[in-house]
From TrEMBL:
Residues 177-328 form the YhcG PDDEXK nuclease domain. It holds the Pfam family DUF1016_N. The lineage of its organism: Bacteria, Pseudomonadati, Bacteroidota, Sphingobacteriia, Sphingobacteriales. Residues 19-152 form the YhcG N-terminal domain. InterPro entries: PD-DEXK-like_domain, tRNA_endonuc-like_dom_sf, YhcG_C, YhcG_N. It comes from Mucilaginibacter ximonensis. This is YhcG family protein. It comes from the Bacteria.
C-alpha cells in the first residue's frame, strides 16, 4: 500500500526524472570521455609511426613491412586492437588530422573509420561536421556516404557555397536548404525496371519511414499520410505531410511515379494556400511543397511555376544509388571555375 502511495506521488516521479537525467547525462559524458581518450591515443600512435618512418634512410627501408611487423609485436604484447588494418587507420588519422584538436570527441572511433575511407578532404569534412550536427550513428553515416549526400548537395552550389558546405555542414535557415535533387530512395527495394503505383510508393515510404526521414534531413517530424483537404464538398488528399521543427512550417509532399506535370504544380499550390490559411497557427511560417517525381522537364517546370509560390519545389527521386563520378565531375568544374 505504502509502495503504491510512493510511486504515485508527484514528488517521487520528479525524483525519478531527476535521477534519470543525471544518470543519462553521466553516461553520455563518460562515453565522450572514453571516445576522447581513445581517439587521442590512436592519433598519438599514428604520430609515433609517422615520425619513426621519417627518421632517415635507415628506417625508410622498412617500408610496408614496418606496420606488419609492428602489428604482430603489439598484438603479442597487448592483444586485440593492433591489427594491421587498425594500425593503417591510426597512421591515416594522424595524416588526415595533423592537429589532434581537429579530431572531435563527439564522434567515436567507428565514425572515423568510415570517414578515413574518404580520399576527398571536402567530403570527409562535410560528413564529419554533419555527423556531429545531426548526431548520426555509424550506420546513418554509412548510409549518407553511400547515397552521396555531399555530392548531391554540392552539385547545385557555386564554388564558395561548396567550400562553406564542406567546412560547416548543411545549415538550415531557408526553405531551399532542405531541398535535395535527386532524393535517393534505394532503401525502398523497388527493382528496376519496375511497375508500381503511387499508392505502393507511398506505402513503402511509410514502411521505411525512418530511412525516409534520414534522407529528408534534420528537423522533419511526420504528421500524416493521405491528409484530407475538403473544398466545396470535394475531398483532396496530400500524400505525405511533415512539420519542420527548425523552419517551423508544414512540408507537403506529393508523389508522382512518372513525370511531374503542370497540373501537379497547380494542385500543390492549392494545397499550400489551404495549409497557410486553414492549418497554420500563430508562429508557423508559410508551408513548403515538394513534388517528388521520377522525371521532370525543367523548362516545363520553369514556365508552369511562373508567379507561383517560391515555397514550391519539384525534385526527382531515384530508386538506385547515384553515379558518384558524374557528380564529382560537376563539382570539380565548379571548384575550378573563376581560377
Amino acid at each position: 500500500m505504502k509502495e503504491n502511495i510512493i510511486k504515485t506521488s508527484k514528488d517521487y516521479q520528479q525524483l525519478i526524472g531527476n535521477i534519470t537525467t543525471v544518470y543519462t547525462d553521466g553516461r553520455l559524458k563518460a562515453i565522450q570521455a572514453v571516445n576522447a581518450t581513445l581517439l587521442k591515443s590512436y592519433w598519438q600512435i599514428g604520430q609515433h609511426i609517422i615520425e619513426f618512418e621519417q627518421g632517415g634512410a635507415e628506417r625508410a627501408k622498412y617500408g610496408a613491412q614496418l606496420l606488419s611487423v609492428l602489428s604482430k609485436d603489439l598484438s603479442l604484447l597487448h592483444g586485440k586492437g593492433f591489427s594491421l588494418s587498425n594500425l593503417k587507420l591510426m597512421r591515416q588519422l594522424y595524416v588526415c588530422y595533423s592537429k589532434s584538436q581537429t579530431v572531435s570527441d563527439q564522434l567515436g572511433w567507428s565514425h572515423y573509420v568510415e570517414l578515413l575511407k574518404l580520399d576527398d578532404e571536402l567530403e570527409r569534412s562535410f560528413y564529419e561536421k554533419q555527423s556531429i550536427r545531426e548526431r548520426w550513428s555509424v550506420r546513418e553515416l554509412k548510409r549518407q556516404i553511400s547515397s552521396s549526400l555531399f555530392l548531391r548537395l554540392a552539385t547545385v552550389k557555386d564554388k564558395e557555397q561548396i567550400l562553406h558546405l564542406a567546412k560547416q555542414g548543411q545549415t538550415v535557415t531557408h526553405p531551399l536548404d532542405i531541398i535535395r535533387d535527386p532524393y535517393i530512395l534505394d532503401f525502398l527495394k523497388i527493382p528496376e525496371p519496375n511497375h508500381y503505383s503511387e499508392s505502393e510508393l507511398e506505402k513503402r515510404i511509410i514502411e521505411h519511414l525512418q530511412h525516409f526521414l534520414l534522407e529528408l534531413g534534420k528537423g522533419f517530424a511526420f504528421v500524416g499520410r493521405q491528409y484530407r483537404i475538403t473544398l466545396d464538398n470535394t475531398h483532396h488528399y496530400v500524400d505525405l505531410v511533415f512539420y519542420h521543427r527548425i523552419l517551423k512550417c508544414f512540408v507537403l509532399i506529393d508523389l508522382k511515379k512518372e513525370r511531374a506535370g503542370y497540373e501537379d504544380i497547380g494542385q500543390m499550390n492549392m494545397y499550400l494556400g489551404y495549409f497557410e490559411h486553414e492549418e497554420n497557427t500563430e508562429g508557423d511560417a508559410p508551408p513548403i511543397g515538394i513534388i517528388l517525381a521520377k522525371q521532370k522537364d525543367d523548362l516545363l517546370i520553369k514556365y508552369a511555376m511562373h508567379n507561383i509560390s517560391s515555397q514550391l519545389f519539384v525534385s526527382k527521386y531515384q530508386l538506385y544509388l547515384p553515379d558518384k563520378e558524374e557528380l564529382r565531375a560537376v563539382i570539380e568544374e565548379q571548384l575550378n571555375s573563376n581560377q
